[in-house]
């Protein structure tokens, strides 16, 4: 029987499972990851406001795996021989006919003193830390910023930082203590969020001004000290620092025969094949793909890539040539706790809707719809 090994248990990995089974693929599927639970990170933005709990965002996958006849190997991937299609894990090697790399990436930690900031998208624990720190503050300055991977400018996940900025501002207003806090948004880019489109950036900067947020933009970061961000354009004193650095690949990627991009991600093609490695596929944040300069690092794009590669594997197993290209598409609702701004990009289309209350509820409804498959 054909064996498909899927590395990871996040969005791309689970979407690949669903699409393979939907296409009638009866192959043996092994999901390799340390945990058999999905952490729904898009909703961690609501933890500080109490709209979600940490445990409520952790979905056990036992039933999902059983329904789809999937074996879960609780293991950490330590390496990969792509040419031989052998996955190295701390529980021993795993051989497979097809390997899907859906491990996600990691955030760069090269900036001196980065341990003095909270990196929000590193996981649920980071959001819990933000909630605890905010609750303990009676006032002061909250600095929120982001940067990219200088070797691969597209390797950035900046949208959540705008959401944290607007959500914390709204939350403090609802609590009646916003006047005791200052907000500063910082970035080496003079116009952060450009992958969303120029109109969206204009809207974001205008919203910052409306909310009384000070900006510190266009200055290269030097270091982060306890209570201080140092840039080439000056210093920012802060009582709470949230910082999202650029992304790169997992550390073990560099020890394999996988082709890597300048930023350290795995090079995939438009069909989500790893370049020059037949039978090895990549989807989501682990990969670097051809496409427009705004190609996003987000769950929606990971899902689209996973569906494409699953269709291509299904075609190969049926004796057909793979031909399904993934669709470059960006869609997000930038939430502010009581409203949301919609941004959509596909091809030449770049739609931006202003902050509207129904969009906040639409984002919450989408979460419920998406997670039904795993509950």
Q: Tell me the radius of gyration.
A: 21 Å
Biggest sheet layout: 5 strands, parallel
Which homologous superfamily in CATH is the superfamily of the largest domain? FAD/NAD(P)-binding domain
Number of strands: 24
Outline type? globular
- Relative strand content: 25-35%
Structural class: alpha/beta
Name of the CATH class of the largest domain:
Alpha Beta
What is the second-level CATH architecture of the largest domain?
3-Layer(bba) Sandwich
CATH topology of the largest domain: FAD/NAD(P)-binding domain
Between the first and last Cα atoms, what is the distance in angstroms? 29 Å
Helix content: 25-40%
Side by side, the strands of the main sheet go 5-2-1-9-20
Provide a count of the helices.
Answer: 7
Count the domains: 2
| Arithmetic mean pLDDT | 97
The parts where pLDDT drops under 50 for at least 5 residues are none
Task: Give an account of the 3D structure.
This is Pyridine nucleotide-disulfide oxidoreductase. InterPro entries: FAD/NAD-bd_sf (IPR036188), FAD/NAD-binding_dom (IPR023753), SQRD (IPR052541). Residues 3-302 form the FAD/NAD(P)-binding domain. One of its GO terms (molecular function) is oxidoreductase activity. There is one protein chain. By secondary structure, the protein is of the alpha/beta class. The protein has two domains: 3-105 and 249-317, 3-Layer(bba) Sandwich (FAD/NAD(P)-binding domain), CATH 3.50.50.60; 108-246, FAD/NAD(P)-binding domain (3-Layer(bba) Sandwich). Helices cover 25% and strands 28% of the residues. The longest helix has 19 residues, at 299-317. The protein is globular.
